[in-house]
# Entry
Amino acid sequence: MPHPDALRWDERYAREPDRFALRDPRGLLTERLDLLPRGALILDAACGAAASGRYLAARGWRVIALDVSLAALRLARLNVKEEASPISFAVMDLTDPWLPPAWFDVVLNFYFLSRPIIPAYRETLKPGGLLFFETYLGSPGANPNRFLESQELRRLFADWEIVHYAETERWAHARSGYKEKRRAAQLIARKPS
# Structure
């Protein structure tokens, strides 16, 4: 039986492929490429159509892109020339993951929240590895399972070197079909060596 999130996201990717395929890589990442070590192995978690992962792979980084949606990964593969981009795709439910310990140099988590994955990120990064994490903050009455609290990411990684932390506003697609301003938290943190 397919995962309910996979069914929901497969339907969205099938209904709006252009919206997802044409996304740009995340600014938090593209503005801080100087932090990424050459030859790094990068995990693009809950990657969707892998805009950020494809961007990095096209520039020579090795990327493993994971998502619960097979439709998203198929869309991502359509935009990758395998011989030119060192990127691998796999379907994985990241709400209760197993990731190999001390394996990745960089982990990307953009607009996905599953608190059980946070300890897995802490373990799967090599010492000195970087975590790029950006997702929405909750508003009063919002479901706490789907949104971060203000300063929550900073607290979760207080024992790491915080390279960047900000709480910002950005335009986002609302269920109504219109765009609305939403608050988001951004974190770049380095695992202690």
Remarks:
- The chain is about 25% helix and 30% strand.
- The radius of gyration is 16 Å.
- Strands lie at 41-45, 62-67, 87-91, 104-110, 125-136, 161-173, 179-190.
